[in-house]
Amino acid sequence: MGRAGARPATTARPPRPPAGPPRTPTSGGGRTMPPAEHRGVLAPPGPPGFDEQAAEIPDHLLRSPVWTDEAVAASGIPVVDVPFVTVGGGMGSFVMVDVLRIAGVRPEQVKVLTNLRHPWENYAYLTGVSQLPPNYRIRSDASSMPDNLWGFPSYAARRAFRSRSVTGFLAPLWNVLTENLLTDYWTPLAGEVFEGMRREADRIGYWDSVAHGQARMVRRRAAGGYFTVFTTQGARRQRVIYRSAHVQLAVGYPSIRFLPDMQEFRARHGNAQRFVNAYEPHEHVYEDLKSRPGTVVVRGGGIAASAIIHRLLNDREQHGAQTRIVHLLRNYVSGPHGPSRFMRRRGGKGWAHQGFNWPKASWGGQLKMRLERAGDDERRELWKVMKGSTTPYRKGWQKQLERARRNGSYTAVQGTIARVDRTDSGSVQLHCTDAGGAAQAITADYLVDATGLIGDLRSHRLLHDLVEVSGAPRNVLGRLDVSTGFEITALRSGPGRIFAAGAATEGAYYAPADSLLGLQYAALRIADQLADDGFGKKITSARSVAQWCRFMRGVAP
Fold first, then answer.
1. Cβ 48 vs Cβ 237: under 8 Å
2. Whose CA, among 51, 207, 227, 270, lies 20 to 30 Å from 187?
């Protein structure tokens, strides 16, 4: 597919993106690893500064959900034509571009609008601050590979063939063959995921499709297609409007969730050091607790809470820290639980255990089919059953927890926080209510909130605008309502389509939409629909085999 419509009165050449982060060779052959400055993100990526010299969007356009070519031309803002735009530039955008390239779409036919330096930047930041750095295992399986659509050879196979010993070769393969029976689920290291994505980005020419800056809003085009308003980055920032036939929104998490008690505490005391969120930088907590005895309360029962507790216990065992951990849980799980014998999770001693974020049947089994067929009420109930904080059951982790229980350094309690105060000594005092309704007080040096990540759509500027001005409908959980093909059908514009993927679609027809494999599934569904419209080719069996061979040789699609 070529241009989205008639040539505008004012046309600008799109700003040339950088060639991508530089690569640093490792000692192991031709593979590459991220340079040191990209292995750990010290601060969250932020929006570019606003250039007051950039052309303003007229008020009548801001209020209108549909724009005409004439009105856009009259605004004086340069227009760039490109068939497909993906907004976000994270994991969702990356796998979308990867699938489109495999489907025969050229790099110049796609534009990635992003404020990220590389597509794993936000993911690396969130996992890093929540104590899952690149050398730690993430919650994914061996074949969920954003850089490898086919999932073969898997992360486990890659590690096996990189090994220089018989034991190192057999261990990951044995783990995969016996996982969840004799061994824990095999999971890749975060750094392995980032390394593979860098290599694939170079192979498919991803960097040539990237425009760095901030996407502000998306509007339907009267003649079909969409306008995406974008502010570029660089020495001279410029406002640009991308005119495209199709748009994909893959903006990631709308925001970090700051619960009311945290907001109230910070408003009253102005202290963000003692009461912290797991997804904001809080390394000072661990450094301080290594230097002196102290108590920390960790709230939450998911993977972030378990990673933080693991870090605290490691500091005790490896650095001699004398930290006492109080684990505060709203729901204390005492054993296997669920609505029926066929929908039960294992659990115990406070934790609910599940190998991955969602039941495996929701990726491609009965739960996936039930969600796709369900009406709103049934779908809402299914989401309620499948959701909830869980963490994987790992034998080494369980042994560490048991040691901490025996020596008194770890205690799990059930309760909810009513209020958090600051004591005269600077500590925090939690006023809690236990399961029976009785009040209790806990005094600690630090409180780490690890209860969740996703905020309301209103917290994201572009998504809020899409709902309030363009009329994008919400689903049963208040996120973007998309079809089984991930299209926001209410915003279809002539032959043009707008799609959404990732966390912003939670509550629609696909539960693991924000998982690595879920993002690839969404990209495949979107690519199939675009191929039906003449943009790209169907990924048939023959094309898939041919493209896999090119992938294995490191040749561009």
1. yes
2. 207
Neighbours of 293 (CB within 10 A): 10
Task: Please give the pLDDT value at position 8.
Answer: 38
Alpha-helical segments (H) within 227-339: 260-269, 283-291, 303-319
132: left (phi over 0), alpha (psi -120 to 50) or beta: beta
- The answer to the question of residue 498 being in a domain is yes
Are residues 68 and 211 both part of a single domain?
yes
> Within this chain, do residues 521 and 480 fall inside the same structural domain, yes or no?
yes
Average pLDDT of each block of 10 consecutive residues along the chain (557 residues)? 39 42 37 38 43 72 96 95 98 98 97 96 94 91 94 95 94 94 92 96 97 96 98 86 98 85 91 92 96 97 95 97 97 85 85 88 90 92 88 93 97 95 93 88 96 81 96 95 97 97 94 94 98 97 98 97
> Are 85 and 179 in a shared domain?
no
- Other Cβ atoms less than 10 A from the Cβ of 514: the count is 23
| Structural tokens at position 497 | 């389509």
* Length of the chain, in residues: 557
Residues 88 and 194 in one domain: yes
DSSP sequence for 522-537: HHHHHHHHHHHTTSS-
Do 158 and 228 reside in the same domain of the chain? no
Q: Are 274 and 428 in contact (CB under 8 A)?
A: yes
